[in-house]
Amino acid sequence: NVQPAAQPSTQTNAQPAVQPQIVITDVHKEYGDLHVLKGVNLEIQPSTVTVILGPSGSGKSTLLRMINQLETITGGEIDVDGEMIGYKPVQRGGQTVLQTLSDKEVARQRAHIGMVFQKFNLFPHMTVLENIIEAPVHVAGMKKEQALAEARTYLEMVGLSDRANHYPSQLSGGQQQRVAIARAIAMHPDIMLFDEPTSALDPELVGEVLSVMRKLADDGMTMVVVTHEIGFAREVADQIVFMDGGVVVESGTADIVDHPQTERFQEFLKAVL
Ligand code: ADP
Ligand code: MG
């Protein structure tokens, strides 16, 4: 993990340098002959919300899944909190080569990244509370009493205190997704990835999930959100990224949706707005 030597600043009013929390450098993904990501570059600052927009098939889910190591990287590099994910550089015969991390090291890196999917994937045979404490107790080794106490505060945060002992099938889609968010938070992540969290919901249930996400953002969570909700993007995003064809076509602050520079982004916005 080589850090560049700090340079003495010549500026008098230099801003304190904030280390990006996620750095994505020339990342590629190939599935056999299919070249899905073709050199993605992106930096994500701590406690910011990045919204990724783009047409279906542009590689948004693949990129999120690579950050969370559900997919391997076939080229380039992703660093989280200054550490390369999935690989470590080792010296071999006078050369630096990348070695795949052990399952244990991968688990350590993934432990502080939470992910919420389009399909909520709650355990159907467990109550809401049981769903939330499952990983803290069985993966993180938390005491059950503590996990339960924490779970109740997360349920309050997502507005579902009165549903603690319900089963997923007894909840609406919006409620299930809010439980899924509470379940992810229960592992104390410092980064949350959302892959189209409201796409499977009836329109009238989208708002309640977005409002929980807004709350998380206000609390300072670093968030990367794939969504077609342009209103949410405009209001909450610190950074918007438009992907198409496996590359970042445009990125910038939230107002890029009002001034798209490329025809591809213009066409996309026309279709979703
Ligand atoms: P998006 O989320 O932007 O809709 P994806 O990242 O899901 O796009 O997919 C990008 C491309 O990669 C698509 O062409 C998709 O068919 C392909 N793809 C995704 N996952 C796999 C896989 N496991 N094997 C082969 N191709 C895949
Ligand atoms: Mg997708």
TrEMBL record:
It is a peripheral membrane protein. Its EC number is 7.4.2.1. Its main location: membrane. It is found in: Cell membrane. It is an enzyme of class 7 (translocase). Keywords: ATP-binding, Cell membrane, Membrane, Nucleotide-binding, Transport. GO terms for molecular function: ATP binding; ATP hydrolysis activity; ATPase-coupled polar amino acid-transporter activity. Residues 1-17 are annotated as: Disordered. InterPro entries: AAA+_ATPase (IPR003593), ABC_ATPase_HisP-typ (IPR030679), ABC_transporter-like_ATP-bd (IPR003439), ABC_transporter-like_CS (IPR017871), MetN_ABC_transporter-like (IPR050086), P-loop_NTPase (IPR027417). Gene3D superfamilies: P-loop containing nucleotide triphosphate hydrolases. It catalyses: a polar amino acid(out) + ATP + H2O = a polar amino acid(in) + ADP + phosphate + H(+). GO terms for cellular component: plasma membrane. Residues 22-270 form the ABC transporter domain. This is ABC-type polar-amino-acid transporter.
